[in-house]
Amino acid sequence: MEDKKFIFDRRIKLILLVFIIFFSLIITRLFWLQIYKNDFYFERSQANSERIEPIKPLRGMIYDRHKNVLAENLLAYDLVINIEKKSNQEIEYIITKLSEILPITDEIKKKFYKLKTERKFLRFIPIVTNIDAKLLTSFVSHKYEFPDVKIKEEFLRSYPYSHINAHLIGYINRISAHDLNNFKQDQKLLESYFGFTHKGKQGVEKFFEESLKGKAGFKKIRVNAQNSFVNEIEHIPPTDGKDLNLSIDLDLQIRASELLKDYKGAIIMTHVKTNEILTYQSNPSFDPNHFVNGIGFDEWNNLNLDPKKPMLDRIISATYPPGSTIKPFISIAGLEHNQISKDFKISDPGYYRLPNSKKIFKDWKKEGHGEVDLIKAIAESCDVYFYNLAYKLGINKLSHTLTKFSFGNQTGVQLPSEKNGILPSPEWKQKRYKQKWNQYETINTSIGQGDFLVTPIQLTHALNTLLNNKKIAPPSIIQKEIFTDEFIESSSITDDEFIEIVKLGMQQVTGDSGTFRSIAHKNLNKLAGKTGTAQVFSLKNKDYDEANIEDHLKDHSLFIGYAPFDDPTVSIAVVIENGGHGSSVAAPIAKKLVDYYFELAMNHE
Amino acid sequence: MSNLLNIIFNYVDKQFTVYLTTLMLFGLYLIGEAAGFDSNFFYKQCIFIISGLFIYFLVSLTNVRTLYRFSFLLYLISIFLLMLTFFIGSEVNGSKRWLNLILFKFQTSELIKITLPIFLIFIVENFKKKSETMVEFFILSFTLIPFVLILIQPDLGSSLIILFIGLIIIFLNGLNIYKIISGIIVLLAAIPYAWFYVLKDYQKSRVLNLFDPFSNPLESGYHSIQSSIAIGSGGLLGKASEYGTQTDLLFLPETHTDFIFAVLAENYGFLGNLIYFVIAFLLISRLVKITLDLHLHSNRLLAVTYVIIFIVCFLINIAMVSGLFPIVGIPLPLTSYGGSSLFIYLIIFGLINALHNRKTLIAN
Questions:
Q1: Mean pLDDT over all residues of chain A?
Q2: Which end of chain A has less Cβ packing within 10 Å, N or C?
C-alpha cells in the first residue's frame, strides 16, 4: 500500500512536470507571436480588414468654342457582381438567376466574362451597364435574392452630338488586356490608372487623355469578414480632369455634317492666322456613345467591314492625290526658282509632249486653253502650263519648295494617328521602290497625281502657310486664349510678291472664266481657292466617261479655298471621294460652309 | 439568512471559489467583447454562470460514498445517453453530439467525463484484491466503450479525453514500467492505422496544417492562420483602445466559444494573457493543494483525475488557439461560452469540494 502511494506521488510529480514544460512551450509561443513577430502579424491583420477603394475623378468636359458641351459625364447605374472568392459555377448561377428578371443576352455575358478574364484585380464586374429605370426597378424589387449583385453609381461618358463630332472627339472605352500590357511596361503609368476603368481610345479623348482623366482619390476603409463596410480610415479626394475648350464651332460642325451627308469625304475649316480648326468633319461617321461600355462584337464587325469605312478619320488618316489643288504651290516653286514670272506665257494646244520622248500628256480641256499666263493657268487650271513648268524646274527644285509647305510631313495636329502623306521625289522613290526617278513622274507631280498623296489637313495647313507666308504653328483644335498670330519662324517663306501673284490666280478661280465661275456674281464673301479633280484610276487611252463608270473609280472632287480674298480669315479644304469634278461638288460645299461661317460671325457680333 | 450562507460556504473552499468565480467573470467579459455585451450569448452565459454556481454548491453537499455506490448506474446512464445521441441526436456541422432537451442542447460526451472516473475508481477500490492486470483490463474495456461511441459522432477531441481518463487512472494506479513501455509501443503502432482508417480528411488536414498552415489558407488552414494573426497582432498591450480587427470584424469566427483566448490575446496582448494565467495558476495550485491533501487514496485518485482533465483541456485549448496543436473542438475551461462545458467543470469542482468535506468530516 505504501508502495502504491509512493508510486502515485512520484507519477503526480512527473505529470506536473510535463504540464510545466507544456505551459512553458505555450508561453514561448505566445511571446514569439505577440512580441517577436508582432509587426508581421499586425500588418497581416490590417491587410485582412483594410481595403483601399479608389474614388474615380470626373473626366474633364469637352466644349466647343462657344461653350457647347461636346462630351459630358452623366450619372448612370451599373449592376455589378462581386466575384471575390467565388467559383465559376457560383457566378454562372448568379447570372442565370439574374436573367430571369433582366434581359441578359449572350452578348452581355460574353462581355462580362471577357472583362473578368482581362481585369484580374477587379472585384466588381459590371453585368448590366447604364441600366434603365424600368429594369432597375424590377431588379430592386428582387434585390434580396442577390446579395452579391450591387447597384453601382457610375459616370457615363456621353457625346450628345454623337456622330457629328465622332472622329474629332473620339471616344473612351474600357481598359483592355492590351492596354494593361502596355501599362505594365511603365510602373508610373500603371499606377496612374489605378482605380480607372476607362481610357481615351480615339481622337481628342485619346490625345488629351493625360489632362482629361484627372487623378483618382483613395478611400481606405475597414471591412469585416463578410466584406461589409465598417468605417473609414483615410480619405484622399480625387482630382477631377481638366475641361477642354476646343476651337471647333458646333454650328459649323452640324452644317458641315449636313453638307457631307450624301458623300464620303472630309471638310476642314481653319482660321488662317491662328491655324485653329473650326470644322472637322469626316463622313460617313459612327456613334461614339456605343463604344463607351464596350461595343458589341457584331456592331464592331459591321463598322470595320463596311466598305464606306465609317471609322476612318478622313481628315488626318486618309490620303488623297491633291490633284490641281497643288497648282498654287507649284506656281510658287516656279516663281521662286525664276522659271516663270507673272507674265510668262505659253500656248496650250490641249496636250504636252515630253521633250526627247513620244510621251504625250493631255490637258483636261481637249481643245486646249490657247494663250495662257500664270494667272489664267491657275484660274482655269491649265495642265499644260504646269507640265511645261515642271519640266523646266525639275523634281528637286519642285519638291524643295513643296517641303516648305509641309507636304509629305505630319502637320503635328494634336490628334492621334495622323498620316504623313507622300511627297514624291527621287530619294523617296529610291527608298520605297529601289527604282530610278522618271521624268514623266515630275510631270505627274505638277498636277498632283502619280504617287503624290496628301491628307485634307495638310491642304489647309499648306494653304495657311502660303497665305501668311510664314512657317505657321501646327493646326490646333484647342481654342487659343488670345487671338494672336502664331508663327514658328518670323522670316518669310518666299517673296511676298510671289504670294500675291498666286493669290490673284486663286481669286480668278471664282472669277468670270475660272473653274468655279458658277459663283462669279454671287461671291459676297469673296471666296478664292483652287479646285481639284484627282484621278483614282488611270484609264489607259480610254476616254473618261463620267456617266458609265463605277462609283468607286470616279475621280475625287477637291477644293481648297479662303475668304475673303483681300483679308483672308478662314481657309477650307473639302475632299469628296469619287465626287467627280472639283468645281461641281467640293467647291459648292465649301462655298456654302464659308457663307455659313460669315453668317454666324455676323450673328455672334 | 447569513447563517444559511455560512453553512453553504462551510461546504466549499472559499479561496478556491473566489478564484473560480473570478475566472468565470473574466470569461464572461471576454464573451461580451467577442459577441457583444447586448448579445444573447452574453445573457445566456450569465445565466449559465449563476445556475452553474448553484449546482456547484449543491454538488459540494453530496456524499461521495453514495456516488461510488451508484457509479455503475451512472456509467450505464451515460452510455445509454451516448447511444441515444447516436440515434436521435441533433446534427451540427456533420457531427451528432447533442441531445435536444428543448430548453437547451445537452452534449452527452460531457456527462461521461464525470461519471467515467467515478466508476473507474470504484473498480480500482473493489478489485483491490484481484490481480492488477485484471483491474487494468476492466478499466481499459469500460473506457473504450464510450471512447468508440464518441469517436463515431464524430468528436475526436472528446473521445481522446475519455481515452486519456482511462489511461491516466491506470498510470496513476501504479502501472508497472514494462506495461507502460509496451503500451506506448502499441499506441505508436496504432497511429498509422488511425491515420488511414479512423481520421476523416478534415481531421487529417487539421493535423497537417499544424506544420504548414499557409498551405491552405482559405479552408482548413483558415482558423489556424486567423487565430495566429489575432494573437500576434495583439502585441504587448493589445488593441483594446482601437479595434480588435481580427475578432471584432469576424475574420476569426466562433471567437466566443473555442477561440475566446484569441479575443483576450488580440485585445489585451501578452500582458493580458499573463494576467489571465496568474488567475488560472492561483486556481490550479489551490486545486492541486486541496487534492493532494485528501486522505483516502481512492478519493485522491478521483480528484487528481478531474484536476488533470481540467489542466489538460486548459493547455490544449491555448495550444490549439496559438497554433501549437491541431484544431480539436475543446473549449477553454470556465472561459469559453457554453453551458455543457461550464456545468461539467462546476460539477467536477463541486465533487472535489465534497471529497474535501469528507476529509474534514473524518478528521472531526
A1: 87
A2: C
Phi/psi at A55 (5° precision): -110, 120
Q: Considering its fold, how many domains does chain A have in total?
A: 3
Q: Are A321 and A447 in contact (CB under 8 A)?
A: no
**Which residues in chain B show pLDDT less than 70?**
1-2, 93-94, 101-104, 198, 206, 209-221, 240-254, 359-364
> Are the beta carbons of B244 and B34 closer than 8 angstroms?
no
According to DSSP, the β-strands at B90-92 and A570-576 are unpaired
Three-point CA angle A109, A110, A111, nearest 5°: 90
Percent of chain A with pLDDT strictly greater than 70: 94
CB atoms within 10 A of CB B158: 25
Q: Identify the closest residue of chain B to A26 by CA–CA distance.
A: B319
Q: What is the pLDDT of residues A316-357, one digit of tens each?
A: 999 999 999 999 999 999 999 988 888 888 888 888 888 888
**With an 8 Å Cβ cutoff, is B233 touching chain A?**
yes
Domain extent for A23: 2-36
pLDDT score of A463: 95
Q: Do A348 and A453 belong to one domain?
A: yes
Residue B334: the pLDDT is: 93
Same domain as A111, residue A32: no
Strands A487-492 and A470-472: antiparallel
Report d(CA A547, CA B119) in Å as an integer: 118
pLDDT exceeds 70 at position A94: yes
CB B316 within 8 A of CB B210: no
pLDDT single digits (tens) A24-53: 999 999 999 888 888 888 888 877 777 777
> What type of residue sits at position A497?
E
User: Rounded distance, CA A342 to CA B250, Å?
Assistant: 92
Q: Looking at the structure, do residues A526 and A546 belong to the same domain, yes or no?
A: yes
A-to-B residue pairs, Cβ atoms closer than 8 angstroms: 115
Query: Under a CB-based contact definition with an 8 Å cutoff, are residues A510 and A528 in contact?
Result: yes
Query: Which CATH number covers residue A160?
Result: 3.90.1310.10
- Asked if B286 contacts B280 with a C-beta cutoff of 8 angstroms, the reply is no
Q: Is A60 helix (H, G, I), strand (E, B) or coil?
A: coil
Chain A residues 192-211 within an 8 A CB cutoff of chain B:
none
> Is A381 among the catalytic positions?
no
Domain boundary among A207, A224, A245: A245
In this structure, the answer to whether residues A453 and A568 fall within a common structural domain is yes
C-alpha cell recorded at residue A297: 462584337
pLDDT digits (tens, 9 = 90+) for A472-497: 889 999 887 654 555 666 778 888 89
What pTM was estimated for this model as a whole?
Answer: 0.67
Residue B168 main-chain phi, psi, to 5 deg:
-70, -35
| Predicted local distance difference test score (pLDDT) of residue A541 | 46
Q: Is A36 on the interface with B (CB under 8 A)?
A: no
> DSSP letter at A437?
P
Tell me which of B228, B231, B289 to substitute to probe the interface with A (most A C-beta atoms closer than 10 Å): B231
